[in-house]
Amino acid sequence: MCTLSIPVDIFTFNIAINCCRHSNRVDYAFSLLATTFKGGFVPNVVTYTTLIRGLLSQHKFSEARLFFANLTKFREIQPDVITFNTMIDVLCKTGHTDMALWLFRFMEKSDCEPDTVTYNTIINSLCKRGLVDDAFNLHSEMMEKCILPDVQTYSPIIQVLCNFNRWEEVGLLLKQMIDDMKISPDVHTFTILVDAYSKSGKLDDAKHIIQIMNERGVYPNIVTYSTLIHAYCSQGQMDGALAVLNTIKSKKIMPDCYTYSILMNAYCRELKLDIAMDIYRNMASDGLSPTVVTHNILLHGLCQLGKSMEALTFFYKIQGLGHKPDIVTYQTLLGGLCKNHYVDKALSLFRTIECNGLIPESNTYNIIIRGCLWSKKYDGACELVDKMVYSGFSIDAATTSVLRHLLLSKAHDPTLVAIYQKCLIALRYVTCLTSVTVEEAMPAKHKVTPVDINSEAKARDARDADQEIVVLDAKRFDGDAEDHQL
């Protein structure tokens, strides 16, 4: 445009600078800023706000703070509420709530009044950190300054109160919201309540909330219904869960992968793998593509039933269809193969992990090491221990129990003694959990006595070695999945 003498203005530059910010090239954005000066253009508040957001998005917080301070000091810009809200929002989303609060107070001193959006952003961030009392204080401050809250103000506070089972305060806050402030809860707020009651085992209360939603003309969405299905499944009431699924379909609401995964996981827990597989096939007929979590559920179900070779076949099948496994997929299969005495298959699979762009975790190493120990593949276990220690990991409590059990029965085996020494040294070096020396732990003639490594390891017995991989941990699936949570 410049070469062809096509006119440009500061709005053109702002668009280009914003594009650089979205491309994570804030250096190019500042180059464009220099070009605006050379072209005789005057950057405005949008220009500088975009540049500050670029610095914050790349975690250059000190640079952003200095840049902002200089701009205000030399009166290059007069920040408005949108500028402050933009910066506060980015800081909160990147977990820097303390800096956001500092900017919030700086905003007040700059004679720029915070608005509802400002308060909502910080209240939401405080609630995510569990700082409910601080959020309450900010809410009270907001009311004192006659800044009217809205449904986005109340929803995060209600959620964190539910998380802490502070039901009385939840009731009071809802009363204030509906009766005093005349603010109607939206589907998000109601879903928070359904989720909270479900997790607390108050299934009747959860159903009552959905009834209230329908009466008030706030219609539940797929997240609301999925939460209710999860509650039924958690209590083993599969008929109720299927009834909710039928209700969803009758209302022309399309179930998603998360909904189906909840049902599949519940049936796998009850060892009803055939029904879980039927649901898996129904996903395809509904036009849904299974996720890695979906496949992990089925693999775990197969391994639970002792069908580890079928699980391995299924794994290669889904890989051939272009589905990428994650580290939990491998841990599930390794645990199943080792438990069912297919350790050679497990070792072969273990060697392919890094080829698929994944890095074995501490749990991955411990699973395969336990398998080698129980199968008397001590040389393989010794090699894996070396690699595990080199990767910065150490033996866990379950592996410790297996090793101690074998040493007590076969204390004369030199390879086991070597493994024990390596594990003990690594444990001391990496976690500093024991002060017992190798010499103290290994008396003459390799007569090994149990070492009090820590209270947890001491409490466990050899059966811990058969501990299964939990495919769907709380972070990834248990009603709090990131893509579906409130």
TrEMBL record:
Keyword Transferase on entry? no
Q: Give the record's family classification.
A: Belongs to the PPR family. P subfamily.
Among the GO molecular function terms of this UniProt record, one is: mRNA binding
One Pfam family from the record: PPR_2
Keyword terms: Repeat
> What name does UniProt use for this protein?
Pentatricopeptide repeat-containing protein
The record's listing under Gene3D superfamilies reads:
Tetratricopeptide repeat domain (1.25.40.10)
- Please report the residue spans annotated as repeat (PPR): 9-43, 44-79, 80-114, 115-149, 186-220, 221-255, 256-290, 291-325, 326-360, 361-395
